[in-house]
């Protein structure tokens, strides 16, 4: 929705395919993926550690943490972006 609201992707770039759902055109897919990559790699300071990180690293660490939780039957402590 953010990219549509900002005019990066337009509603006219979506087409409905009979029985196959709604599809984005090639240009809108490229725009989406480019913006997704920028978002995932944008640096920010972790609220707890004050170290620079990005969403890709946060997600990677949390997948590893979830694996540990499931394998060892321990309580999961989610990552909290805002305090």
TrEMBL record:
Q: Which Gene3D superfamilies match?
A: CRISPR-associated endonuclease Cas1, C-terminal domain (1.20.120.920)
Per its UniProt record, what InterPro entries does this chain match?
Answer: CRISPR-assoc_Cas1_C
Q: What is this protein called?
A: Uncharacterized protein
């Amino acid at each position: 929705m953010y990219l549509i609201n900002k005019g990066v992707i337009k509603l006219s770039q979506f087409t409905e395919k009979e029985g196959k759902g709604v599809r984005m055109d090639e240009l809108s897919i490229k725009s989406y993926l480019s913006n997704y990559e920028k978002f995932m790699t944008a640096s920010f300071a972790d609220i707890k550690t004050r170290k620079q990180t990005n969403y890709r690293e946060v997600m990677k660490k949390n997948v590893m943490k979830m694996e540990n939780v499931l394998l060892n039957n321990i309580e999961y402590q989610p990552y909290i972006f805002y305090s």
